[in-house]
């Protein structure tokens, strides 16, 4: 049995398998984050029971259920694909940490970020054009309720890297290297951790 299946069994969920069913040029296919990467993220010290994670493009909910189980954080998964959302809801009904996870069927461009959110996860869920809109939503939430807000970008694309490097609202806090977790060398195997702030922000 693979590690992927082992963790799914422990968590009482089913999250394996890629889904390209309604992917297009702006919203990308569902591919679950490897559990070995999530283990490293859980052990990074950035998550605890005091935090609330927002997972953009949650798919079947792996990130949400795993981090809620391992770190006791609360997690919000949003997904626009109705079929994937239905799978996530089914997982929540059985998941050992399901009570700490909430799910919403919504387009990321229309989602108002709750004031409780202080951790945000991205695994290339959509284009940079949509990411720009999402950043504005994050800013609106941040300005209404200033707090520490950390953004986690796993396996960032070239386009994401270019955007993040030029985004004045973000400061690179850390790089969590994950390349050693896989047999083949891949420079993109990392999680970039950014702190969100607004220009001239005194928080």
Automatic annotation (TrEMBL):
<keyword id="KW-0808">Transferase</keyword>
<keyword id="KW-0489">Methyltransferase</keyword>
<dbReference type="InterPro" id="IPR025714">
    <property type="entry name" value="Methyltranfer_dom"/>
</dbReference>
<dbReference type="GO" id="GO:0032259">
    <property type="term" value="P:methylation"/>
</dbReference>
<dbReference type="InterPro" id="IPR029063">
    <property type="entry name" value="SAM-dependent_MTases_sf"/>
</dbReference>
<protein>
    <submittedName>
        <fullName>Class I SAM-dependent methyltransferase</fullName>
    </submittedName>
</protein>
<dbReference type="GO" id="GO:0008168">
    <property type="term" value="F:methyltransferase activity"/>
</dbReference>
<dbReference type="Pfam" id="PF13847">
    <property type="entry name" value="Methyltransf_31"/>
</dbReference>
<feature type="domain" description="Methyltransferase">
    <location>
        <begin position="49"/>
        <end position="163"/>
    </location>
</feature>
